[in-house]
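Students often ask why inverse folding is considered easier than folding. One informal answer: many sequences map to the same fold, so there is more than one right answer. In these notes we will look at a single instance of the problem. The structure comes first.
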C-alpha cells in the first residue's frame, strides 16, 4: 500500500484568500517547497483535502473551482512537486444554496475525503499524515486513521480540544518542519 501526505489548501499549502475562486490569486506559501520535495521523494503521495464553503455560500461555483485547482497543480509542477489529487467538500450546514446545505461525511473534521483518496490510490491511512492549519484538519486526519500535524501559523482561532482526536501529534511553525517530522517518524517506524 502507498503512503500519503494530506494537505489542507488555504492557509497551509497556499496563501489564505477567503473564498478564493480566482486562479490568479493562487500563491504557494514560501516555506513549503524543500520539505514537500523530500517527502515526495520518500514515496509519499501529495493529496489536498479542502473544505470549500464558498461554493455552498454561492461565492463561486464548483466549475469555477476547477481553474483554481489547475493553477495550484501548475504552480506545484513548476516547483518540482506532483499533486496526486485534489479532494474538496462543497457543503456547509448553513449554506446559502439549498443543494449544498447537507450534513455530509466529506466536510472536515469528518474523514470522508481521506477515505475516497485511500480507496482510489490504495493508501494506507495509518502510514499517512495530515498537515493543516486548524484543529478540524487535525481531527479529520485522526478520524481517518492518520497522524496529524497542526501548522501553527495563526489561523486557528478556536483551540477547542474537547476530544483526543482534536489533539495534534505535533505542532509546527512551517510545513518544512512538519515534513522533517514525517520523514523522521517514518525512519523510526521502519527500524522497528
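Output (designed amino acids):
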Amino acid at each position: 500500500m502507498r503512503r500519503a501526505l494530506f494537505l489542507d489548501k488555504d492557509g497551509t499549502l497556499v496563501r489564505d484568500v477567503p473564498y478564493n475562486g480566482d486562479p490568479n490569486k493562487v500563491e504557494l506559501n514560501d516555506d513549503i517547497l524543500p520539505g514537500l520535495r523530500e517527502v515526495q521523494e520518500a514515496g509519499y503521495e501529495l493529496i489536498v483535502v479542502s473544505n470549500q464553503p464558498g461554493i455552498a455560500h454561492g461565492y463561486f461555483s464548483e466549475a469555477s473551482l476547477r481553474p483554481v485547482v489547475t493553477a495550484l497543480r501548475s504552480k506545484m509542477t513548476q516547483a518540482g512537486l506532483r499533486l496526486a489529487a485534489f479532494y474538496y467538500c462543497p457543503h456547509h450546514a448553513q449554506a446559502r444554496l439549498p443543494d449544498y446545505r447537507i450534513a455530509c461525511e466529506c466536510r472536515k473534521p469528518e474523514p470522508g475525503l481521506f477515505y475516497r483518496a485511500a480507496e482510489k490510490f490504495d493508501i494506507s491511512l495509518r502510514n499517512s499524515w495530515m498537515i493543516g492549519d486548524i484543529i478540524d484538519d487535525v481531527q479529520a486526519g485522526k478520524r481517518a486513521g492518520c497522524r496529524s500535524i497542526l501548522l501553527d501559523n495563526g489561523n486557528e482561532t478556536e483551540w477547542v480540544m474537547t476530544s483526543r482526536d482534536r489533539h495534534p501529534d505535533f505542532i509546527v511553525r512551517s510545513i518544512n518542519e512538519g515534513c522533517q517530522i514525517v520523514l523522521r517518524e517514518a525512519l523510526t517506524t521502519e527500524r522497528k
